[in-house]
């Protein structure tokens, strides 16, 4: 898969290619990351990338033509659907990430300042997504979140083929608690069931924990999905 990111701070976005799971995805050629800076498409001496809003008021907008040209260059490279990251977008969730990962290439536009001209959004943007109900100083971190969440779902990226399947949200539930050595930490012990080697009991315990945690912390997730009879029994017992 190829993801092109249009950003005034490409070196910030490039950091995802430098480490961890996303770095491995890029190194193995499973993810291609293209970076496009609107500043490279300016034509004035000052390489201006911002402009004043009609109607006045505080703050600046991204200058239309450099962003437009950068988007055209990015699309020419990967022909991806254009996603604009902004707090006004639909809120990203794992279902959306899964669809992105299974779909074609993407162009991510990271906004800066007060955002982009509405006509640019209409002409060039296919979808607008937010990573949460808070305001970042730019869309770069949001774009990096999208790249990271997608990369780990691409076939061959994660070491253990199962580990994406066992993630939080894959099944609409939060993840269960996990333990590693030592057996006791400051007097807190690993639950016996995890040491006893009964795999059916372990699976049952993990499912019950995932259900219980979701019920406690994110009841909205349970309301959004139907529980099987088995899950309902586990949650009730
Ligand atoms: N840009 C600024 N804030 C953002 C957010 N919450 N999500 C996506 N892009 C953003």
UniProtKB/TrEMBL annotation:
Cellular component, GO annotation: cytosol
EC number: 2.1.1.228
Any one GO biological process: tRNA N1-guanine methylation
GO molecular function, one term: tRNA (guanine(37)-N1)-methyltransferase activity
Record domain tRNA methyltransferase TRMD/TRM10-type: where: 1-223
Catalysed reaction, written as an equation: guanosine(37) in tRNA + S-adenosyl-L-methionine = N(1)-methylguanosine(37) in tRNA + S-adenosyl-L-homocysteine + H(+)
Family matches, as Gene3D superfamilies: 3.40.1280.10, tRNA(m1g37)methyltransferase, domain 2
The keyword Ligase is annotated on this UniProt entry: no
Binding-site positions, S-adenosyl-L-methionine: 111, 131-136
Keywords: Cytoplasm, Methyltransferase, S-adenosyl-L-methionine, Transferase, tRNA processing
InterPro entries referenced in this protein's UniProt entry, alphabetically: Alpha/beta_knot_MTases (IPR029028), tRNA_m1G_MeTrfase_C_sf (IPR023148), tRNA_m1G_MeTrfase_TrmD (IPR002649), tRNA_m1G_MTases_N (IPR029026), tRNA_MeTrfase_TRMD/TRM10 (IPR016009)
Subcellular location: Cytoplasm
Enzyme kind, highest EC tier: transferase
Main location: cytoplasm
Biological function: Specifically methylates guanosine-37 in various tRNAs.
NCBIfam families according to UniProt: PRK00026.1, trmD
Family (UniProt): Belongs to the RNA methyltransferase TrmD family.
Self-association state and partner proteins as the record states: Homodimer.
PANTHER family: TRNA (GUANINE-N(1)-)-METHYLTRANSFERASE
Protein name, entry field: tRNA (guanine-N(1)-)-methyltransferase
Source organism of this protein record: Acidihalobacter ferrooxydans
């Amino acid at each position: 898969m190829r993801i092109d990111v249009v950003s005034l701070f490409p070196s910030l976005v490039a950091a995802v290619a430098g480490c961890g799971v996303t770095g491995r995805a890029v190194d193995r050629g499973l993810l291609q990351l293209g970076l496009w800076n609107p500043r490279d498409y300016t034509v004035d001496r000052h390489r201006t990338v911002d402009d004043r809003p009609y109607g006045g008021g505080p703050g600046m907008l991204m200058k239309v033509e450099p962003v437009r040209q950068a988007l055209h260059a990015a699309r020419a490279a990967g022909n991806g659907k254009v996603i604009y990251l902004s707090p006004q977008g639909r809120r990203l969730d794992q279902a959306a990430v899964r669809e992105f990962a299974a779909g074609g290439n993407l162009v991510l536009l990271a906004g800066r300042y007060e955002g982009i001209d509405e006509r640019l959004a209409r002409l060039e943007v296919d979808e607008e997504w937010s990573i949460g109900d808070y305001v970042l100083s730019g869309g770069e971190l949001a774009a990096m979140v999208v790249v990271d969440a997608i990369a780990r779902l691409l076939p061959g990226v994660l070491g253990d083929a199962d580990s994406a399947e066992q993630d939080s949200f894959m099944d609409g539930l939060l993840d269960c608690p996990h333990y590693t050595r030592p057996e006791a930490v400051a007097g807190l012990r690993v639950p016996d069931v995890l040491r006893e080697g009964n795999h059916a009991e372990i699976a049952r315990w993990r499912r019950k924990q995932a259900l219980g945690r979701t019920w406690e912390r994110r009841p909205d997730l349970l309301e959004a999905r139907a529980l099987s009879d088995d899950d309902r029994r586990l949650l009730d017992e």
